[in-house]
Amino acid sequence: MTNLQSWMIWPDNNVASVLVLVLIAMAGLYAARAPMHGIIRAAGLALSGALRLASRWLFAAAAVMKERNKAVLLAQGRREVGQRIEREFERVGVLVTRDLQGYPVLQRKLLESITRIEEDYKKCGEVPPPPPDWVEAVAAVAEIKTGGGEVVQKILDEIRQSVERIHEKALGEYRRAYEERHDILENAQPFWRSIEKTLKLVDKKFSDLADNAAAVDTQMKKYQKIAAKSDEAETILSNSAFTQFNISVIVMTIALGGAFVNFKLIALPMSEMVGAGDYITASLRTSEIAALVIILVEASMGLFLMEALHITHLFPRIANLSESTRRRMVWISLTLLVILASVEAALALMRDMLIADKQALVQSLSATAPAAHTEGWVGRIPTAGQMVLGFILPFALAFVAVPLESFIHSARNIGGSLFADLVRMLGFVLRVLGNLTRHLTRLLLHFYDLLVVLPLMVEHLVRSVRSGAKMVKSRRLDSTGELKS
Amino acid sequence: MIKRSLWAAAAAALVLAAAGCTDPRSHVQAVYVLVDTSGTYAAEAGKAQLIVNYLLGTLQPGDSLAVARVQSRSFSEKDIIAKALFDQRPTQANAQKRAFREKTDKYFRTVRGSAHTDITGGLIQGAEFLNETGAGKKTILIFSDMQEELDKVTIRNFPISLKNIRVIAVNVTKLNTDNIDPRRYLGRLEAWQKRVEGAGASEWKVINDLDRLDAIFSKS
Lengths: 485, 220
Prior knowledge:
The structure holds 2 protein chains of 2 kinds. Chain A is an all-alpha fold.
């Protein structure tokens, strides 16, 4: 208040003092109007220009990033589809080798069956022997009239009887021949069935081959789209990367849960190995870090195992190893994994023993009646369960390498895409800020003019008066000129 | 990328290991229990065993525990009934705790009252023991009525040092005279608080409800 009072020209008359001060300030501001306008304009221009430049650079960078992301995405897609095509070809190769290798045998079998059926057919086609020609002659003789002669009658009867006998014999042979043909046809039935079966097999194999060929065809079309760098392929691959990312995150979260259980199983017994009294921080024991290290080593071994088995492809060095070294690596990592799993099973057992010991101590200290223990095999179930879990979890963790690979590959695409979007957004924000700065500069200039509105009005007035005087003068001059001329 | 992550993990592990190696004892605790065996308070010794049992169940491997008696003159190692630095291995620590319990149990069954009460001497002895352990958290539990009675020869009226040690008076029973005039009891506790805090103790507390010990010794 005192400070404010010291500014007053007439302390007794505040209004007059303020008015005079305002007028002085206005005059001062009016005097500095031109340089102040220059400063505001220059500052605004510098700021908005820098912001616009930065925005333009960010947009360009985002475009480059997008291109690079697209290239990476397409390259990954090309590699993956290429591998899938390779695998499909391998399958087709195996199918062709397996099935066509057996094809001559199949063909021979078919031919044999067909030949046999043909032979049987021919056999069936053979006509039974006709009755001898003389029978007709005898029949003709039998038609001879006896003329009442007993001798002739007797001869003819004998001839008829012998003919009938022969006829019955011939009929019997005829029937037997037909029976034989029926038997042949009956025996040919399995061959028909065999042919039918073989043909079905051939049909199935060819349809399998056709399916594989169709799969190869689909993958090839996808590959062609990727090779052509089409937008459709980019969209598909991008969606695929998002899906892969989400799936791998879910699987890895589950695996983390497994790792946590594993950690809980071995953290306590590890204190028996590295000591329970060592602390790294106030709440983090060395034994817990040791347990964590064991789990991480197991995960690493699993990773190497998956790499050596060519299931994942995170380390090119391992992928490029010779076959014998790779096989050796498989065995080494598998052995180490088994050893670590056995150690974990032992630690799980020790955990149970430690807890039991601690409980016994607490009970003896509390001097209360000991809690009833579950004896027998039922009481051992938790111990056995812990041991089994301790042995199995390291192997389960080994498979984390697969989602980890997916996560790393998809995270590159998604991270790159998000970063490019972020850069673009930043560019947009800077552009908006640049425009805002430009408009603010104008606003400031107008505001400054508002502060010196009175002197400006005076200036306008003076100018208009002067310009009016000049116009009058020029008119006069003009008029005098006209007069002279 | 993976290589870089592995290097980072290895570096983090090394840093953690180094941090672990620098101050391994700063997170362990040491407790010194002073049990008053003088006069009528000797009858309360059975409760002291409960506190010792509670401590045995609470303390972790690597921690230290000592139980000492308060007698006519208590500034002596001979007054320490049992002491132990628990092994880092839980199984060994449990075995030590069992042996500790047997030792104190045996003593408390045959405890005999002394003529005088030298709490100050016991505090000095306790501070000496605790400082030697190098533990990060040091506690003296005084199981007494806090009525100090010295003979004419014993000198204890000098400044003592209890720097960074918290002192907890447990089961401070009221004397007959306290019942007549409670100001005596309150004044006695106030005098001890002044003395202990003046000696540089980090904390002074009186706990008569033994269930509240949980809050003090639970690992945070």
